[in-house]
Amino acid sequence: MVRKVVPGAVVAVTDLKKHVGLLVIALFASSANSAVLPEERADTMYHAYSGGGVTIDGPSVLVRKNIGNKVSLSANYYVDMISGASIDVQATASPYSEQRDEFSLGADYLVEKTTMSLSYTNSSENDYQAETVGFGISQDFFGDLSTLSMRVSLGSDDVMRNGDENFLEQAEHRRYSLGWSQILTTKLIAEVSVETVADEGFLNNPYRSVRYLDPNSGTGFSYQAELYPTTRNSDAVALRAKYRLPYRAAIKSEYRRYADSWGISSDNLELRYTHPLESENLILEGKLRFYKQDGADFYSDLFPYLNATNFRARDKELSDFSSTAIGIGASYQLPERWALFNRRNTVNLYWDYVLFDYDNFHDVRVHNSGDYLPGEEPSYSFNAHVVRLFWSMWF
Amino acid sequence: MYKRALLLLPLLLLAGCETMMPEPWVKPYERHYLADPIMSFERDPVAAGYMNHVYEAREAARGAEGGSGGGCGCN
Where in the sequence is the domain holding A177, given as residue range(s)? Predict the structure, then answer.
């Protein structure tokens, strides 16, 4: 392969290296008082998402352990077991079940006030393989009132299609994030984070279809395969704050704004209230979350004819929609007589109820029973339950 | 000579900044409220990571989830 060398670019890269070098020196150039490694603990969780005709559940086990006082290692095994039939499957395919297994390994290395971390994740399904490596660095400064963190991750996916042995496509994902957390008062901490994601390759679902008006079809419409652009760049910025109330309780607020090159933009807002009941060894929590998005430029519930546009999608996750979630949960610390291995143990149960309301994704299942003109079907909506039941033990 | 004096100007400005820089205003002994586990943004990484995965699967938005989120390798 012949590689072109552009002098300007070389200078720019050298400059960039210098700047990165200075930044790294600046990050390491502090002393005294050190940051701390994450808590050593083991979590065993059962998770379940159930809604819209689909159930996705399974276990997740996360263990984190220190080696000496500078290194922390973590390992996570996570499973999604998918069964049922979503509205897309009910309209265009047959019910299915599958499983996704994910392994992650992570290492954090602490030097003075700097924590460096490495991570590796492998996710595997019968028709999708994904590997991600990540590197992060975070630095405490300004009397430990401020923490600056950066993270880069690179992901590489193989996309396959069941029933078609010749189908193999690739996708790559790069994520860059920057976070600043700041202690503002003795009772208030705030954080701002930004993240850019760049995707390249085969980004659509190989099974999903769009529908278009077809006078030759009995229902008045037919289906053809989705076709997405091969690149996607997105930016997200989030602002969150946590405040300790005058009694022992805390409120959290979070706002995030998102926009991408597919024309999607969204806002979400979350409010959370945490209330310990010390005499009962309980911590109670309640939350509200609102999400609203404007869909992709190339999304349509019903295209006017076959191959009507360069790109086409009818994935409801790319449509205009909003969702509202209400969640409650409790964490119970086991009394000493029940505590396993003489450690601190908690059992935790959290439940969210989410209502999804789609503006321009219509429920085509009505054609099975009624007489509707294409595009005049009722808008789709559904609700979902999300459960996390887990046991935690601190070493 | 005049030029040399100009070169020193940024240094003088920096020295000025040094005295103007605010001191960290919350002292280590004033952080008992902040040290309370209920004050962390996410107490349980296993559950927070899962919720981020659920949101990312159901919504087009991704990124800026905070310390425990992002890069789950799932699509």
Answer: 7-30+40-394
